[in-house]
């Protein structure tokens, strides 16, 4: 069961947050909600960044130390990954290590602030363009990307005609790529890719830009290739 709280959020907040309780990570605006324990993530084991301990499943242990965790050292002790660019980079690098969908979605779920921020790896469709001006495709491949799970949203279709702030492709202009983020194993929405561009105070970059009109920074010309990317076949 989900319950709404009217209190001002006390968690360290991601980029572009106002203290009325709304945030606009990757260009979207959502009301902050509080969830009861039944709404905590399921799937691969989870680790909390503050304690470094497993929260919902056993983890491997070493012979002479605490339980092993996939939480990057750059993130340990943080209540929010968005407070440190090096943490966000490490979270993405961790997911990029997985080269197939099975390994990607089996990566440990990482929690910050007792589950206030849920970080998962998702298998993304990545379309690379040989010539963005003509939308000529060079390759279509899968890639493991890090993202923020949103327990309020189902995965949805990011390639429909009514794209919104949530349901749209992301652009990596320097790599001439359009990225369609994957879903969480429980069917929830994953917002991403994460990276240094999403840190609090980061300058706007042309990475992770939402491919719709009216966003800041504006959608780059590469987003004109979104229909081509959505129609491209790929071997998941």
Walk me through the structure.
There is one protein chain. The chain is mainly beta and 236 residues long. Helix content is 10%, strand content 28%. It has helices at 85-96, 101-105, 226-231, and strands spanning 2-3, 17-18, 22-23, 30-31, 34-35, 46-48, 109-112, 117-131, 136-154, 170-172, 177-180, 188-191, 207-210. The chain is globular. The relative contact order is 0.17.
Nutshell version of this structure?
By secondary structure, the protein is mainly beta. Helices cover 10% and strands 28% of the residues. Strand 10 (170-172) and strand 11 (177-180) form a beta hairpin.
Please give the share of residues in helix: under 10%
* Order of helical and strand elements: EEEEEEHHEEEEEEEH
Give the strand tally.
13
Integer average pLDDT? 75
Which key features would you list for this structure?
single chain; mainly beta; 3-stranded antiparallel sheet; 3 helices
What's the layout of helices and strands?
Layout (H helix, E strand, L loop, with lengths): L1 E2 L13 E2 L3 E2 L6 E2 L2 E2 L10 E3 L36 H12 L4 H5 L3 E4 L4 E15 L4 E19 L15 E3 L4 E4 L7 E4 L15 E4 L15 H6 L5
Parallel strand pairs: 6-7
Antiparallel strand pairs: 1-5, 2-3, 3-4, 7-8, 8-9, 8-11, 9-12, 10-11, 10-13
